[in-house]
């Protein structure tokens, strides 16, 4: 190997060292994108105000056709409600207000998890929940996470590759933000008046059905069977054979009115209190809208 003379060696060393300030500057402007989150998921970091302002998509609406730039995740926030590009808002519980805990929430697509301060509420294991509720009545009690792909479940974490530690009538599901113990009623008898209702991801609960049991009896005319259950009403589900309406669609059948793109039974606001049937009441979804028989839980959905 040839030995370089003094001036040439200095020139080579200078050429190697010159890029270092640029690398350091890049590192300052582009912080570590992800930290490892148990069990191995990516976590968006907490950025400074200056770092956030350098990102074009920060705070912008996002979705399947509007991606967030790293290290941001596209998070749906039910408090507003909308999906925006954001970083983590906390790293530890100490950074949250009293009555809140710092938890990791899944974001859309293959984005990183985002850590956010969420309220501690009364919802118990296996009950429904809202990840970022306006009202803490729809949040999980201490020690539980609100997770799931299709529905929000109050659940404890579990491991798919080891002891799963799920209680009786629960199973370890490969769900979001990571494996959780979801409820199942397939191997037990439901109380009188309730049915074992499948709610996706293998989860099922014993619940009282309001409306037609369209999971058992298919809807007519190829209509979609919609199954809804809401946190304030554990042990209850609402089923509907959806008849869509609105601009460009057929008018509702006799005795129904178009409300919220659905054809619902018409009713009179001062009629008998039980005219709409158990689990429903006569109301309207907007001030200038028609009165219709609406599920009881619609009263709280604007304040989730």
Describe this structure in words.
By secondary structure, this protein is mainly beta. Among the domains are: 23-119, no CATH class; 248-304, no CATH class. The protein is built from 3 helices and 18 strands. The chain has helices at residues 6-17, 19-29, 49-53; strands spanning 35-37, 41-43, 73-77, 82-86, 100-105, 114-119, 145-147, 153-155, 170-173, 180-183, 195-198, 204-210, 224-228, 236-242, 256-259, 262-265, 280-283, 292-295. Strands 11-12-14-13 form a 4-stranded mixed beta sheet, with no helix packed on it. It has a two-stranded antiparallel ribbon with strand order 1-2. It has a two-stranded antiparallel sheet with strand order 3-4. Strand 9 and strand 10 form a beta hairpin. It is globular, with a radius of gyration of 26 Å. The N and C termini lie far apart (72 Å).
Please give a quick description of this structure.
9% of the residues lie in helices and 27% in strands. It has helices at 6-17, 19-29, 49-53, and strands at 35-37, 41-43, 73-77, 82-86, 100-105, 114-119, 145-147, 153-155, 170-173, 180-183, 195-198, 204-210, 224-228, 236-242, 256-259, 262-265, 280-283, 292-295.
